[in-house]
């Protein structure tokens, strides 16, 4: 695999992960953390080899950019 192809694949993975996270939370509005991660992994597995750490990183960046919110005490993700 060439370096350019690897970068494109990585870029596609990041964008796909963010899109699936946002679409899932838009439809569900509020989800428990474990259920949410399971659903994201299930949806992504048909396109990519899933890395749970990568999903968590994308969720954290969406949280930092204030697209989603995580309530630590309740272990719940919500959509703004």
Describe this entry's structure for a reader.
The protein has one domain (3-79): Winged helix-like DNA-binding domain superfamily/Winged helix DNA-binding domain (Arc Repressor Mutant, subunit A, Orthogonal Bundle). With 80 residues, the chain is α+β, with helices and mostly antiparallel strands. The mean pLDDT is 84. It is built from three helices and three strands; from the N terminus they run αβααββ. A hairpin with a 4-residue loop joins β2 and β3 (76-79). The protein starts with a helix and ends with a strand.
Topology:
Blueprint: H1 3-28, E1 30-32, H2 33-44, H3 52-64, E2 68-71, E3 76-79
Antiparallel strand pairs: 1-3, 2-3
Helix pairs in contact: 1-2, 1-3
Q: How far is it from the N-terminal to the C-terminal residue, by CA? A: 39 Å
Strand tally: 3
Determine the fraction of residues in helical runs and give it as a percent range.
55-70%
Shape: globular
- The CATH homologous superfamily corresponds to Winged helix-like DNA-binding domain superfamily/Winged helix DNA-binding domain
Largest sheet: 3 strands, antiparallel
List keywords for this structure.
80 residues, alpha+beta, 3-stranded antiparallel beta sheet, globular
In short:
The chain has 80 residues and is α+β, with helices and mostly antiparallel strands. The chain has helices at 3-28, 33-44, 52-64, and strands at 30-32, 68-71, 76-79.
């Amino acid at each position: 695999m060439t370096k350019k192809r690897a970068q494109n694949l990585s870029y596609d993975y990041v964008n796909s992960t963010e899109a699936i996270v946002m679409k899932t939370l838009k439809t569900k509005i509020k989800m428990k953390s474990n259920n949410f991660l399971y659903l994201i992994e299930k949806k992504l597995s048909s396109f990519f080899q899933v890395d749970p750490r990568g999903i968590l990183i994308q969720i954290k960046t969406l949280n930092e950019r204030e697209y989603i919110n995580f309530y630590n005490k309740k272990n719940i993700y919500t959509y703004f």
